[in-house]
Amino acid sequence: MFKTEAFVSEKIWGYERWILSTHKAGEALAAKSTEFIGGKKLSSIIGADYPLLVKVIQADETLSVQVHPDDEYARIHENSAGKTECWYILDAKEGASLIYGLNGIYSREELKQAIENQTLDGCLRSVPVSKGDFVFIPAGTVHAIQGGLRLLEIQQSSDITYRLYDWGRPREIHVEKSLDVIKPVPPDSLNAEHPFSGAFSCPYFNLEKYDYTVRGSICFAKKAASQQQEPTPAMKTSWLSLFVVSGAGTLESNTGERISVKAEDCIIVGSEEKIAVIPDSGSTLSLMHIS
């Protein structure tokens, strides 16, 4: 059990903290305070092919309109995994929103013409969001993070982003590849959770959020066995993670190791570990279990 130290990527619209990453584009480290492994790259501890990448994203301005390829397209064209992802809203200014899919079913030619005419805005579906909401972004879904949002992003370990549209900013866009991978999804099939139900599962990752007001425990192995669920790619590596959504407290392993934690810390744990969760007095310690 150990904390990570993030790789920070500065952007024109804000920044990203890659808190769990073994990707070559930016690796996180074991926290320097960790005995024996402090300062080492995560890839040397949990493996270079760890299947998840977890970020905290601060968006002060709107990002480009993007779409990510699925596994098959990414493997053929990019020699990479695809990119299915999700967002948990850590904070949001009043009136914040996201681009979440298209507002109708459009042909490739209709979208291409809208991009050329700078009228794609009229095809985009804007969804209001607030702190505590959850959004699932399957590969092939058009999306954009808009300004005034702070997000936890859990995704496949892939750095492939196709910019479909960039609001007139002079950056490279990838129109043909974007149009290749967009999936025609009816708008009413894309639903944000207001607020997050507390649990989500897909073939790539499982998420569970728990609020601890008194001492509790976490045992991933026992939980997986009781639910008889299909192991995710992360479960098969024997390394899972915890993200501190809010609050502060202490985590204690079954070997007696103790780590103090606070909001936005990321902790890597072995899947067979049993962890005691001890919130600070008077504090609610909210943890996202990522497996």
Topology:
Elements lengths: L1 E4 L1 E5 L2 E7 L8 E2 L12 H4 L5 E8 L5 E3 L3 H8 L6 E8 L4 E6 L5 H9 L7 E5 L5 E4 L5 E3 L3 E8 L5 E4 L9 H7 L17 E3 L4 E7 L3 E4 H8 L5 H5 L1 E8 L1 E6 L4 E5 L3 E5 L3 E6 L5 E6 L1
Antiparallel strand pairs: 1-4, 1-20, 2-3, 3-5, 5-12, 6-13, 7-10, 7-12, 8-9, 8-11, 14-15, 15-22, 16-21, 17-20, 17-22, 18-19, 18-21
Helix pairs in contact: 3-4
How would you concisely characterize the structure shown here?
The chain has 6 helices and 22 strands. The protein has 291 residues and is mainly β. Helix 3 runs antiparallel to helix 4.
Describe this structure in words.
The chain has 291 residues and is mainly β. Helices cover 14% and strands 40% of the residues. It is built from six helices and 22 strands. The strands form five sheets. The chain has a seven-stranded antiparallel beta sheet. A six-stranded antiparallel beta sheet has the order 2-3-5-12-7-10, with no helix packed on it. α3 (108-116) packs antiparallel against α4 (175-181). The chain is globular, with a radius of gyration of 19 Å. The mean pLDDT is 95.
Structural class category? mainly beta
Q: Spans of 5+ residues with little confidence (pLDDT < 50)?
A: none
Principal-axis shape equals globular
List SSEs in N-to-C order. EEEEHEEHEEHEEEEEHEEEHHEEEEEE
Count the E strands. 22
Q: What topology, given as strand order, has the largest sheet?
A: 4-1-20-17-22-15-14
Query: In percent, how much strand structure appears in the residues?
Result: 35-45%
Helix content: 10-25%
Counting H and I runs of at least 4 residues, what is the number of helices?
Answer: 6
What integer value in Å does the Rg equal? Answer: 19 Å
Mean pLDDT across the residues is 95
Major β-sheet profile: 7 strands, antiparallel
Distance between the termini: 15 Å
